[in-house]
Amino acid sequence: MGFDVERVRAAYPALAEGFVHFDGAAGTLVARGVADAIATTLTTAVGNRTTVFEAGRRSNVIVAAARDAVADLVNGDPAGVVFGPSATALTYLVARTLSTQWERGDEVVVSRLDHDANVRPWVQAAERRGATVRWAEFDPATGELPVEQYRSLVTDRTKIVAVTAASNAIGTRPDVAAIADVAHAVEALVYVDGVHSTAHVPTDIEELRADFYVTSAYKWSGPHLAACVAKPQVWERMRPDKLMPSPDTVPDRFEFGTLSFELLAGVTAAVDHLAGLAPGIAQTRRDKVVASLTEAHAYASQIFEKLVSGLERIEGVTVLPAPPGRCPTVSFRVDREAPATTATALGDQGICVYSGDYYAYEYFQSTGLRDSGGGVRASVYHYNTAAEVDRLLQAVAERAHS
């Protein structure tokens, strides 16, 4: 039957405003079911977590349902799902906690392809503990992150290897499983930033061989809330700073203060929305998520190829290189103007794109483009259409030829 994009678009009320959204890499629109779930939670008697009265029992149900939903999304264990306000905050939490066990001369490996949220927390933790930071470099000609370099970067002193599942700047999807195999051979942990990839391709943290996997719901049609997923026994070995009366059990001891029950309800609704993108015969929610994201990615990839090939044909536009199989995200520059000027001009026409370094700090520093404004980023999501791609290409061509 094919991917029914019009049916999918009908689930996003904000699309009625008429803007063209190629800004999904920075945050997607919220699905109607997500907004409804949040509103219902806010207008229903939901108390703080307890078992002694019904309103408090409801919050327990909400929390458990959200853990189940995220586990279904990434093929994790609900008992290993830790929620936090953002992927950045969660990564800092894990880095601070793990680094208490590091000694001077230990090593961490980070990548210049990563969002800074999966770089700076590890670099700063290493500096505090006297550990050494080792850098994995991407290939500037191809945008790839070669696995071979990890065989020399990772040593028996390596404590953590931090790597992205997909670049938020150019979409590159490194071979995380192969990198993890190198790390695990010396008993190093692997922390995977899945913020960009989760929205686009089915995620299986077992196949990725990730010890930690962090994702943000607002990148996949949900609210501004994040989750870090690990096996419960991995969390059990970690002791974060916490209040004395707060729970000491896993995963609760890593969640500070009262959780946002309304946003957790929105997380569950967002996973249910993703599971229903491509109705089929799959039975479990996990199977539905995999089937739906597979079909949605195939659809998005088709119109993304139209976008990239169209940009490459426009004289006066430079497309930053990335390998085949990437997530549907591209960075480019109109040669005659600063990226911010291009993005502003497109925004004035109702076309939403971002400019700058998008927190891919090391990538743009390495390419030498950061000081001149970085790039312009267009990210295709499953509610985009071929007609919207045409509109973007025409607007970019006008900028390049004016």
Automatic annotation (TrEMBL):
Q: Which Gene3D superfamilies match?
A: Aspartate Aminotransferase, domain 1 (3.90.1150.10), Type I PLP-dependent aspartate aminotransferase-like (Major domain) (3.40.640.10)
The residue ranges of the Aminotransferase class V domain are 21-392
Q: From which residue to which does any coiled coil extend?
A: none
Where on the tree of life does the source sit, at the highest rank? Answer: Bacteria
- Name this polypeptide is given: Cysteine desulfurase-like protein
UniProt organism field: Virgisporangium ochraceum
Q: What is the lineage of its organism?
A: Bacteria, Bacillati, Actinomycetota, Actinomycetes, Micromonosporales
